Amino acid sequence: MKRLGYFKKLSLAARWFLPQDEAESVVDDYRDILREIGGQEEAVKRFGPPWKPVIELSDRRKVLRWHSFLALLIFCALVPVIDIILEGTGFYFSNSAGDLLLCGIVYLFGLDVILGGLNSKVITWVSVVVLTLAGIFLFMLHPLELISNLLAPLKRAVFGRDFPICFQIEYFIITGAVISMVYLGFGGNKRRKHIKKSLILGFAVVLFVIACVYGFVMYCFYVDFSLMMHFEIITACEIAAVLLFIGALLSVIMAKMFDYRWRAVYILCIMGIVICFETHNLWWNMNPSIYNEYGMPTTMWVKEVTTFFTWDLGYGLVLAAISLL
Amino acid sequence: MLKKDLIKLSMLHLLTVNDRYGYEVLSVLHRIFTDTQESAIYALLRELCRDKYTESYMGETSGGPARKYYRITESGREKYNQLAEQWRMIKKFLDELGI
Fold this sequence. Notes:
The complex is a heterodimer. By secondary structure, chain A is an all-alpha fold. Chain A has two domains: 2-57; 60-322, no CATH class. Chain A is 78% helix and 0% strand. In chain A, helix 1 (2-17) packs parallel to helix 4 and helix 5 packs antiparallel against helix 11 (232-257). Chain B is of the alpha+beta class. Chain B has a single domain (3-97), classed as Arc Repressor Mutant, subunit A, CATH 1.10.10.10. Chain B has a three-stranded antiparallel sheet. In chain B, helix 2 (22-32) packs across helix 3 (38-50). The longest helix of chain B has 23 residues, at 74-96. The relative contact order of chain B is 0.18. The A-B interface holds A 22, 25-26, 28-29, 32-33, 35-36, 46-48, 52-53, 56-57 and B 21-23, 26, 37-40, 42-43, 46, 49-50, 56, 65, 67-68.
């Protein structure tokens, strides 16, 4: 039992610090080695703490890369949750957080290239300083707004008008999905045939939570609008968003350590958080009169909002499906 | 030639004689390089595998569960000859110096 404890810890450390293929190979080796060794005390005496043999095998650059990606992925899920909790300052916060995210991506990818290609310490440090200054400069340019403005003609062509500004939070779904796919890659020939029950269950639970929120909003708009007036909706959105954030965090960890397809659950979680954010935002900005704050008739406003909800659900599901490949 | 290379040379030598499983390689080499931790020796075994000087396969054992065995590859044999040549030269110089 004790030996199992040492092996379990070692295999978890291997899956955290090493690329998946290598981790599996190392775990196989240590399974054999520990089978030959007397017990946990003997294993500690000969190999040190369970994480030590793994650290000796790990590539510092790859570990740094994994932690950088993890930070970006957590950031994508965390921003809408903080937005919900901050209440009212959401738009400003999500925009600057979006700028920060874009700069972070540029910075980390730049750093990745530099650290991968340079051997000289001096040139590396000079590059890091230059890249940091460039990142700060880019942040001051408000890249998210810049991209949004560049896309404005396209958005007008599709929707006939600009997105209402509060819905820019949905960029986090796309960014989170793209980052997770870039980092974890696709299965290709090595794809596992069987999806574990735990993954199917995780997927189903998150989908159920999202269906509840989405179904509720649609029901309010088209059947009984008075339900939307209850204050409890705010609390429900906050609780759901925090739970979905925990789900996002766990699914990223599962994706790295066990099966990359857990990122589909991660994408669904961000989508759920964004839908909670929009519901929350709707509640605060709701005007039961026939005109809303943009001077838009209620019928048109409802149509607009439900269109966004359906779009979010649609491309969230498509991205989650792609991430299963 | 560093101690690391000596351990690699010993590993490759062991594998030219026979295919061996991880623990076997570790225990033999740890008896020789007593001041080197087994986890460090194992890291070198992985390095050889990563550099394609060795490869692994699952082998049957009588009565027990299947084990992962390591065998030397063609490029591993070249590396072995190269390291062995370096070692012979060092040994020759040391002999000349009377060490």
